[in-house]
Amino acid sequence: MSERTYPSYTHPLWRRLLIGREAGVIALLVIIWLYGYSNIPYFGDTLTLTYILVDMTTVLLIALPMTLVIVTGEIDLSVASVVGLSSAVLGLLVQHGVGMPLACLTALVTGVICGVVNGFLVAYVGLPSLAVTIGTLALYRGIAVGLLGTTAVTDFPANWTELTSRVLGSSGIPTFMMVFVVLAAIFIALLHFSPFGRGIYDIGLSPEAAEFTGVNVQRTKMILFVLTGTLSALAGIFYTLRFGSARGDNATGLELQVIAAVLLGGVSIFGGRGKLPGVIAGVLLIGALSSALRLEGVTVNVINIIIGLLLVLSVLSTSLLAWVSDIRGSRARRHRVQRPTPTPSSVSSQ
């Protein structure tokens, strides 16, 4: 693997904004939306927009902290299990007569605790995040299923379940998306416009070098895993209220959708690279593409194949671009070496 540096930051701002994988994902999203709006029946309806946003809200929420985690070179595979565990905790408390505000707060605290466990094992014990979160994936899911068994809690207050289906006027945009917009603004500012965010990129490029530049690597990783657990629990609350059902097996397999969207949005699985606007566009791209294909009568299996191929191509494009860049760099170095160096005698004769 070639050395990862900051070469793109030597380019002008307009080039960084308009040329890159993130800009390509956004452009592809716009193309699919315009094509579907013009050629696919019902795709341009506000109801379709509502369904796309509601379907992808859970993924959007988890993708925010997951982006930061992957930029550091780590990963969290337990997010879907945290969604299921927070859903089970919420359902169990409501089943026993606890009010919704306190039940939701307890579910959020559950996510914080899950994030602390993951963060402590990864950041302070030094275990690989892949191994840790595979283990906690099974642990949290087992606890969730153990809390509710095979039963499903469905007696949630109607005024709470309606929160996930309300829209802003006739725009078709769900009201809950305002919560996501606020969180997205906070995470974008945190990653792209703060010293903490620069430290995240430093860790992804080289944890050892980040330590020497004053970045507290352990504390940063702990904070990111806690954020991932907290947002996963919030996603679990939304998921439960949206379907009106709390089960221990809720959101099984959701972690794969989140990671696929993050990688599709331009984040490097090796860390040190990625932007949140590209990730948000990647999530919406998957939602819009899936909706367009369903309206065209394409089966779910074929849709999964198409999205999988798109993800593979996006990952391959990163390696291809790095390979082309390495070739250009080596040619430039050889050209500099082969150029004759002027001698003092030749200079004096001129």
Note down, in words, how this protein is organized.
This protein is mostly helical. It has one domain: ABC transporter involved in vitamin B12 uptake, BtuC (Orthogonal Bundle), CATH 1.10.3470. The protein has 15 helices and no strands. The chain has helices spanning 13-18, 21-39, 46-71, 79-95, 100-124, 129-148, 158-161, 177-192, 195-205, 207-212, 217-243, 254-264, 276-295, 300-338, 344-349. Helix 2 packs parallel to helix 13 (276-295). The radius of gyration is 23 Å and the shape is globular. The termini are far apart.
Mean pLDDT: 86
Which fold name is given in CATH as the topology?
ABC transporter involved in vitamin B12 uptake, BtuC
Number of domains: 1
Oligomer: single chain
Percent of residues in beta strands: under 5%
Indicate the low-confidence ranges by residue numbers: 1-7
Instruction: Label the overall shape.
Output: globular
Query: How many strands?
Result: 0
Text of the CATH class: Mainly Alpha
Rounded to an integer in angstroms, the radius of gyration calculated over CA atoms is 23 Å
InterPro entries: ABC_transp_permease
Pfam families: BPD_transp_2 (PF02653)
Membrane topology: Multi-pass membrane protein
Subcellular location: Cell membrane
